[in-house]
Protein backbone atom coordinates (compact mmCIF):
# COMPACT_ATOMS: atom_id res chain seq x y z
CA UNK A 1 0.00 0.00 0.00
CA UNK A 2 1.30 3.43 -0.99
CA UNK A 3 -0.05 6.59 0.62
CA UNK A 4 2.01 9.72 0.07
CA UNK A 5 1.17 13.28 1.13
CA UNK A 6 2.92 16.17 -0.62
CA UNK A 7 3.11 19.34 1.45
CA UNK A 8 4.61 22.77 0.94
CA UNK A 9 3.78 26.35 0.12
CA UNK A 10 1.62 27.36 -2.83
CA UNK A 11 3.69 27.26 -5.98
CA UNK A 12 6.03 24.60 -4.58
CA UNK A 13 4.98 22.13 -7.29
CA UNK A 14 2.84 19.74 -5.26
CA UNK A 15 0.32 19.28 -8.06
CA UNK A 16 2.88 19.22 -10.87
CA UNK A 17 5.10 16.66 -9.17
CA UNK A 18 2.19 14.74 -7.67
CA UNK A 19 0.47 14.16 -11.02
CA UNK A 20 3.70 13.03 -12.68
CA UNK A 21 4.65 10.81 -9.73
CA UNK A 22 1.20 9.20 -9.66
CA UNK A 23 1.46 8.48 -13.41
CA UNK A 24 4.88 6.90 -12.86
CA UNK A 25 3.52 4.67 -10.08
CA UNK A 26 0.21 4.08 -11.91
CA UNK A 27 -1.87 5.10 -8.89
CA UNK A 28 -4.47 7.85 -8.39
CA UNK A 29 -3.52 11.45 -7.65
CA UNK A 30 -5.74 13.65 -5.50
CA UNK A 31 -5.27 17.38 -5.13
CA UNK A 32 -7.05 18.06 -1.84
CA UNK A 33 -8.20 21.52 -2.96
CA UNK A 34 -9.70 20.09 -6.16
CA UNK A 35 -11.31 17.28 -4.17
CA UNK A 36 -12.98 19.83 -1.89
CA UNK A 37 -14.09 21.98 -4.84
CA UNK A 38 -15.62 18.98 -6.62
CA UNK A 39 -17.35 17.80 -3.47
CA UNK A 40 -18.89 21.17 -2.59
CA UNK A 41 -19.26 22.61 -6.12
CA UNK A 42 -17.52 25.82 -5.10
CA UNK A 43 -13.99 27.18 -5.41
CA UNK A 44 -11.71 27.27 -2.38
CA UNK A 45 -11.98 31.07 -2.48
CA UNK A 46 -15.78 30.91 -2.44
CA UNK A 47 -15.78 28.43 0.45
CA UNK A 48 -13.37 30.65 2.40
CA UNK A 49 -15.56 33.70 1.77
CA UNK A 50 -18.81 31.90 2.62
CA UNK A 51 -17.68 29.97 5.68
CA UNK A 52 -14.75 31.93 7.06
CA UNK A 53 -11.35 30.41 7.68
CA UNK A 54 -12.23 28.42 10.83
CA UNK A 55 -15.15 26.65 9.17
CA UNK A 56 -13.14 26.07 5.99
CA UNK A 57 -10.30 24.50 8.01
CA UNK A 58 -12.81 22.14 9.67
CA UNK A 59 -14.08 21.11 6.26
CA UNK A 60 -10.52 20.70 4.94
CA UNK A 61 -9.61 18.51 7.92
CA UNK A 62 -12.63 16.28 7.33
CA UNK A 63 -11.77 15.89 3.65
CA UNK A 64 -8.13 15.13 4.53
CA UNK A 65 -9.32 12.37 6.86
CA UNK A 66 -11.50 11.01 4.08
CA UNK A 67 -8.76 10.83 1.42
CA UNK A 68 -6.25 9.51 3.98
CA UNK A 69 -8.26 6.30 4.08
CA UNK A 70 -7.66 5.61 0.38
CA UNK A 71 -5.02 3.03 -0.50
CA UNK A 72 -2.42 3.53 -3.21
CA UNK A 73 -2.78 7.27 -3.61
CA UNK A 74 -0.72 10.42 -3.82
CA UNK A 75 -2.35 13.42 -2.15
CA UNK A 76 -1.30 17.02 -2.73
CA UNK A 77 -2.41 19.10 0.25
CA UNK A 78 -3.30 22.76 0.31
CA UNK A 79 -0.47 25.02 1.42
CA UNK A 80 -2.11 25.63 4.80
CA UNK A 81 -3.39 22.10 5.43
CA UNK A 82 -0.41 20.91 7.54
CA UNK A 83 -0.63 24.00 9.77
CA UNK A 84 -4.03 23.41 11.34
CA UNK A 85 -5.30 21.01 13.97
CA UNK A 86 -3.22 17.83 14.12
CA UNK A 87 -3.14 17.52 10.32
CA UNK A 88 0.63 17.10 10.04
CA UNK A 89 0.76 14.44 12.77
CA UNK A 90 -2.23 12.72 11.20
CA UNK A 91 -0.61 12.58 7.76
CA UNK A 92 2.63 11.33 9.31
CA UNK A 93 0.69 8.48 10.91
CA UNK A 94 -1.34 7.63 7.81
CA UNK A 95 1.44 7.57 5.20
CA UNK A 96 4.69 9.06 3.99
CA UNK A 97 4.88 12.85 4.05
CA UNK A 98 7.07 14.91 1.74
CA UNK A 99 7.81 18.60 2.17
CA UNK A 100 8.54 20.22 -1.20
CA UNK A 101 11.11 22.76 -0.15
CA UNK A 102 11.48 25.61 -2.63
CA UNK A 103 13.61 28.74 -2.28
CA UNK A 104 11.48 31.88 -1.74
CA UNK A 105 12.88 33.47 -4.92
CA UNK A 106 11.61 30.54 -6.99
CA UNK A 107 8.24 30.71 -5.23
CA UNK A 108 8.08 34.41 -6.05
CA UNK A 109 8.82 33.74 -9.74
CA UNK A 110 6.20 30.99 -9.98
CA UNK A 111 3.53 32.90 -8.07
CA UNK A 112 4.20 36.16 -9.90
CA UNK A 113 3.41 34.40 -13.18
CA UNK A 114 0.29 32.72 -11.72
CA UNK A 115 -0.95 35.74 -9.75
CA UNK A 116 -4.17 36.15 -11.71
CA UNK A 117 -5.26 32.56 -11.00
CA UNK A 118 -4.85 33.00 -7.25
CA UNK A 119 -7.35 35.49 -5.78
CA UNK A 120 -5.32 35.99 -2.60
CA UNK A 121 -2.40 37.30 -4.69
CA UNK A 122 -4.12 39.24 -7.47
CA UNK A 123 -3.70 42.82 -6.26
CA UNK A 124 -0.29 42.53 -4.67
CA UNK A 125 2.71 44.51 -5.90
CA UNK A 126 5.99 42.63 -6.34
CA UNK A 127 7.20 43.84 -2.96
CA UNK A 128 3.92 42.89 -1.26
CA UNK A 129 4.07 39.45 -2.89
CA UNK A 130 7.64 38.89 -1.63
CA UNK A 131 6.62 39.97 1.89
CA UNK A 132 3.51 37.79 1.77
CA UNK A 133 5.58 34.72 0.81
CA UNK A 134 8.25 35.35 3.45
CA UNK A 135 5.70 35.97 6.20
CA UNK A 136 3.68 32.87 5.38
CA UNK A 137 6.79 30.69 5.08
CA UNK A 138 8.08 31.83 8.48
CA UNK A 139 4.78 30.73 10.05
CA UNK A 140 4.40 27.48 8.10
CA UNK A 141 7.94 26.08 8.03
CA UNK A 142 7.69 24.63 11.57
CA UNK A 143 4.81 22.47 10.29
CA UNK A 144 6.24 21.65 6.86
CA UNK A 145 9.55 20.51 8.34
CA UNK A 146 7.78 17.83 10.39
CA UNK A 147 7.37 15.82 7.17
CA UNK A 148 9.18 12.49 6.96
CA UNK A 149 11.08 13.59 3.86
CA UNK A 150 12.31 16.92 2.51
CA UNK A 151 12.58 17.25 -1.26
CA UNK A 152 13.89 20.08 -3.44
CA UNK A 153 10.90 21.23 -5.50
CA UNK A 154 12.87 23.89 -7.33
CA UNK A 155 13.50 21.83 -10.47
CA UNK A 156 10.03 21.47 -12.02
CA UNK A 157 10.12 23.96 -14.87
CA UNK A 158 10.02 21.59 -17.85
CA UNK A 159 9.29 17.95 -18.70
CA UNK A 160 12.88 16.82 -18.28
CA UNK A 161 13.19 18.41 -14.82
CA UNK A 162 9.84 16.92 -13.79
CA UNK A 163 10.87 13.44 -15.01
CA UNK A 164 14.20 13.70 -13.17
CA UNK A 165 12.43 14.88 -10.00
CA UNK A 166 10.01 11.96 -10.21
CA UNK A 167 12.92 9.51 -10.34
CA UNK A 168 14.70 11.24 -7.44
CA UNK A 169 11.50 11.18 -5.38
CA UNK A 170 10.95 7.53 -6.21
CA UNK A 171 14.46 6.72 -4.97
CA UNK A 172 14.04 8.85 -1.84
CA UNK A 173 10.76 7.14 -0.91
CA UNK A 174 11.90 3.70 -2.08
CA UNK A 175 8.70 3.02 -4.07
Please write out the topology.
Layout: E1 3-7, H1 14-25, E2 29-31, H2 32-40, H3 44-51, H4 53-67, E3 73-76, H5 87-94, E4 96-101, H6 104-113, H7 126-144, E5 149-152, H8 159-173
List keywords for this structure.
175 residues; alpha/beta; Rossmann fold; 5 strands
Report on the structure:
This protein is an alpha/beta fold. The chain has one domain (3-151): P-loop containing nucleotide triphosphate hydrolases (Rossmann fold, 3-Layer(aba) Sandwich), CATH 3.40.50. It is built from 8 helices and 5 strands. The protein has a 5-stranded parallel sheet with strand order 2-3-1-4-5. Helix 2 crosses helix 4 (53-67) and helix 6 packs across helix 7 (126-144). The chain is globular. The model has no long low-confidence stretch (mean pLDDT 96).
CATH-defined superfamily: P-loop containing nucleotide triphosphate hydrolases
Give the distance, in angstroms, between the N- and C-terminal Cα atoms.
Answer: 10 Å
* Biggest sheet details: 5 strands, parallel
Radius of gyration computed on alpha carbons = 15 Å
Which parts are unreliable, with pLDDT below 50 for 5 consecutive residues or more?
none
Q: Tell me the domain tally.
A: 1
CATH architecture: 3-Layer(aba) Sandwich
Shape: globular
Amino acid sequence: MIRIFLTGYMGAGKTTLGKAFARELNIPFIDLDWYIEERFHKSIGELFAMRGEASFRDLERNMLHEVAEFDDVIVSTGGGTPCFYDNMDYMNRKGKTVFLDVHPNILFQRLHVAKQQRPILQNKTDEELREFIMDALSKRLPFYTQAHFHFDGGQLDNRLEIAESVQKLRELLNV
